[in-house]
Amino acid sequence: MPAKGDHDARRRDVSDAVWGVLAEHGFGGLTMRAVAARMGASTGLVSHYFPSKKALLRHALDLAEERTAARPRQVATGPGLAALRAALLDVLPVTPELTAGSRAWVSFWDAALADPALGASQAARYDRWRTRLRTHVEAARDLGELPAATDPDQVVVIAAAFAHGLVVQALFDQAQFPPARQVDLLDRFLGTLGHPASPADSPPSG
Fold first, then answer.
1. What is the pLDDT of residue 196?
2. pLDDT (tens digit, 9 = 90+) per residue, 98-139?
3. Which residues contact 111 (CB under 8 A, 6 or more apart)?
4. 202 against 161, higher pLDDT
5. pTM of the model
6. How far apart are CA 84 and CA 129, in angstroms?
7. H or E element: which one contains 21?
8. 129 and 160 in contact (C-beta within 8 Å)?
9. Cβ distance 108 to 61 under 8 Å?
10. Which CATH number is associated with domain 73-194?
11. What is the dotted CATH code of the domain comprising 7-68?
12. What is the pLDDT, as a whole number, of residue 188?
């Protein structure tokens, strides 16, 4: 444990414990007692730094964003679809570290749906992610990897929905969605982007 007077370090220790509880037990298992037990400390120490569960969660969210921003990223082999692939692969639970992070983030969604402020933060987070993905989709279109008529915003929404849908399935059924299959499904998905639906595939008008 850090020195007694090191307030920031102690808060970070608490947040690390919060992140660990969320990764293992989800938001429903996040209690002052569970966090204290993970730290080997008293609930009094936890409540001293975070007087409520909401305050504790907000600080943990800040730390989670720091960790997400600082963790190693997939190295794209090039711009366009290769960069989009790397960006989407970065969110899939294909390693123990990414799996733990995904479990924690998914557990945050429950809290975000119930709290307007947390919900707004999550919506802004999604908006920033889609903006980053859009850059890669636009590059793919400009490189000729996607049709010239491609709507980047539409592709980005579909790509984000695909990635997080796969995240949830993999978290609930790791046996059916091991890392190799996740990567294969991602590559299959990306392969469909350059092949727009033919007129025969379009729904009838009128």
1. 52
2. 898 888 888 888 888 888 988 898 899 899 999 999 999 999
3. 27, 57, 118
4. 161
5. 0.79
6. 12
7. helix 7-25
8. yes
9. yes
10. 1.10.357.10
11. 1.10.10.60
12. 96
